[in-house]
């Protein structure tokens, strides 16, 4: 009998410590907002393809007086199977064909062509809007070369409106 009394007493004690506050009304969950992702999917390329990422180093050379003028700034545009290393995606090509800057990209396989946003500018010119896309074939393997005279200009940005 003592045992039964102890169990009943402990149930009453437990009930006195129970939370008896009223349950708040359910709060509606806001609908998800559609957002544009600014993060690259390049992180997944190795997992998706099963191929290992490798670094490629590029050199831009050649002259094309009509295109290069006082110099041309090239900004590498990420595109599968490659993405550019953050500190090595801008190069300047002089009218004499000399390159300033580094071009290093990481790829799951060697591409046949790569694309740049470009603008005509002197080497030390401040940041400005680029003119359009330039698509260039690459020659070589891990250390590749781009001959600027073999690149094709795409439409300028204002022609895309």
In brief:
The chain has 161 residues and is of the alpha+beta class. Helix content is 15%, strand content 34%.
Give me the secondary-structure topology:
Elements: H1 2-16, H2 45-49, E1 54-61, H3 65-68, E2 72-76, E3 82-84, E4 90-93, E5 99-101, E6 103-107, E7 113-120, E8 132-137, E9 139-140, E10 143-147, E11 152-156
Parallel strand pairs: 1-10
Antiparallel strand pairs: 1-6, 2-4, 2-7, 3-6, 4-5, 7-8, 8-11, 9-10
Largest sheet: 6 strands, antiparallel
| Distance between the amino and carboxyl termini | 90 Å
Helix-strand string: HHEHEEEEEEEEEE
Model regions low in confidence, pLDDT < 50 over at least 5 residues: none
SS-based structural class? alpha+beta
* Computed CA radius of gyration, to the nearest angstrom: 30 Å
Query: What is the residue-averaged pLDDT?
Result: 82
Number of strands: 11
Number of helices: 3
Report on this model:
The chain has 161 residues and is α+β, with helices and mostly antiparallel strands. Helix content is 15%, strand content 34%. The chain is built from 3 helices and 11 strands; from the N terminus they run ααβαββββββββββ. It has helices spanning 2-16, 45-49, 65-68, and strands spanning 54-61, 72-76, 82-84, 90-93, 99-101, 103-107, 113-120, 132-137, 139-140, 143-147, 152-156. Strand 9 and strand 10 form a beta hairpin. The longest helix is centred in the N-terminal third of the chain and has 15 residues, at 2-16. The chain is extended.
Supply database-style keywords.
single chain; 161 residues; alpha+beta; six-stranded antiparallel sheet; five-stranded mixed sheet; 3 helices
């Amino acid at each position: 009998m003592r045992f039964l009394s102890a169990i009943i007493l402990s149930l009453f004690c437990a009930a006195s410590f129970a939370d008896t506050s009223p349950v708040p009304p359910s709060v509606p969950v806001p609908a998800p907002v559609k957002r544009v992702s600014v993060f690259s999917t390049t992180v997944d390329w190795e997992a998706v393809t099963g191929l290992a990422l490798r670094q490629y180093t590029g050199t831009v050379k050649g002259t094309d007086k009509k295109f290069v003028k006082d110099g041309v700034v090239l900004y590498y545009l990420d595109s599968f199977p490659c993405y550019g290393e953050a500190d090595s995606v801008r190069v300047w090509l002089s009218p004499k064909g000399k390159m300033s800057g580094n071009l290093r990209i990481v790829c799951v396989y060697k591409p046949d062509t790569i694309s740049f946003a470009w603008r005509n500018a002197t080497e030390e010119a401040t940041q400005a809007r680029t003119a359009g896309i330039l698509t260039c074939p690459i020659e070589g393997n891990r250390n590749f070369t781009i001959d600027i005279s073999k690149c094709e200009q795409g439409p300028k940005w204002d022609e895309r409106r």
